[in-house]
Amino acid sequence: MIQTYLILLIGLVLTVAAQVLLKFGMSRNGEIVFSARNLLRLLPEIFTNPYLLGGLISLGIGFLLWLVVLSRLKLSVAIPFTSINYILILLFSWLFLKETISAIQLAGVAVIIAGLFLVTR
Known about the structure:
By secondary structure, this protein is an all-alpha fold. The chain is 82% helix and 0% strand.
């Protein structure tokens, strides 16, 4: 059972790392206006931008690990743990993207931790 939770945690970290990599990659491109043409132009960028490619690979591995977790845990147990993503995104954004964290955000993290504790009991 401990192994399953470790796989879950690794998958969550990979998913969050993917989001940070995707943000790095897209920051190099600037803002994109939503249109089919602009999205099609983005396809080659995904395979030539190391951040976007790394993010895509990280998402894929995280997805595969998620499937392993779903094969071992009840959905009602596995899904609440995905709330850890919010905490990790806040931490990774602060560490790697140099974003600031407000007191309200820290209070939100405390609520998430309390909620996770209550839901898994």
